[in-house]
Structure to design on (303 residues):
């Protein structure tokens, strides 16, 4: 019989070089107000495709991008370790390809958001990402609640 | 009347819901005009009291969940670090990694605000107060003859 799922815990997440990555897995249902906030985002960002997923505290954007939606990762230093240890290569924006990773870097160097590039367009590119504890969204890279002026792109070559 | 009744925390709630990292939440709350107003309207002891009250029980709504962070940032905006430092003794009754992280960051990055009065000779008699929430500095510029 599998062990009971504790409401808030962490799971084993490691890089390819066995570096432990801090994470929080919180499976408690989102509190009232989060659903309404998700709905407000759906109405505000009408050009985006809001996926039919529910708000969830179990994973955030980095958990989607780097941990297969299993958990929440929020330490920028740990995200940098993943990029190095797992062999991600930096990519120029002009060479972007669907499947590449995009990081949104805040003014203080914080990796405030991340997502997976899913479509390249003449006017930019579309990203699949999770918005905090809200739902998943497919959106133009700048059509989101995050600062899109400083972006970094990465690709796993092998 | 509670903080959530008196001040518009809708942007703060949106920031908390969208936050993937504690630093994002701090940045958004520092930019929130409602929190700046709150920091100027309530005294530091009042803010500390509201903070202590807000963490006695696990928040049951998004609005209740954002109040502790709003109080911490408002304390950060005070001209003296005294009550922000007192806030380091406040212990939530529930587990919240972000509360400890955000509090620590605010304490470590606190800069005392200073007031500078600059009187410029001019025919105008406009008084304008400029505040930089990021740097926590406040300048009062008097234009007058």
């Amino acid at each position: 019989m599998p062990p009971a799922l504790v409401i808030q815990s962490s799971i084993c997440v490691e890089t390819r070089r066995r570096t432990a990555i801090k994470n929080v897995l919180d499976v408690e249902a989102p509190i009232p107000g989060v659903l309404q906030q998700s709905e407000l985002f759906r109405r505000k960002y009408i050009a985006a495709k809001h996926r039919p997923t529910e708000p969830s505290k179990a994973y955030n954007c980095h958990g989607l991008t780097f941990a297969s939606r299993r958990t929440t990762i929020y330490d920028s230093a740990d995200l940098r370790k993943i990029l190095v240890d797992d062999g991600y290569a930096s990519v120029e924006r002009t060479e972007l390809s669907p499947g590449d990773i995009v990081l949104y870097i805040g003014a203080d160097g914080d990796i405030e958001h991340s997502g997976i590039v899913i479509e390249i367009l003449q006017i930019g590119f579309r990203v699949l990402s999770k918005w905090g504890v809200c739902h998943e969204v497919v959106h133009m890279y700048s059509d989101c609640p995050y600062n899109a002026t400083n972006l970094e792109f990465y690709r796993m070559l092998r | 009347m509670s903080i959530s009744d008196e001040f518009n925390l809708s942007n703060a709630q949106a920031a908390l819901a969208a936050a993937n990292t504690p630093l994002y939440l701090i940045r958004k709350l520092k930019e929130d005009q409602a929190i700046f107003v709150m920091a100027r309207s309530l005294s530091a002891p009042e803010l500390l009291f509201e903070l202590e009250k807000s963490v006695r029980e696990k928040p049951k709504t998004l609005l209740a969940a954002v109040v502790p962070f709003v109080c911490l940032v408002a304390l950060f905006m005070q001209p003296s670090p005294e009550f922000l430092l007192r806030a380091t003794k406040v212990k939530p009754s529930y587990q919240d990694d972000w509360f400890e992280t955000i509090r620590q960051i605010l304490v470590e990055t606190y800069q005392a605000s200073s007031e500078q009065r600059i009187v410029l000779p001019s025919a105008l008699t406009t008084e304008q107060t400029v505040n930089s929430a990021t740097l926590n500095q406040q300048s009062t510029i008097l234009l007058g003859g």
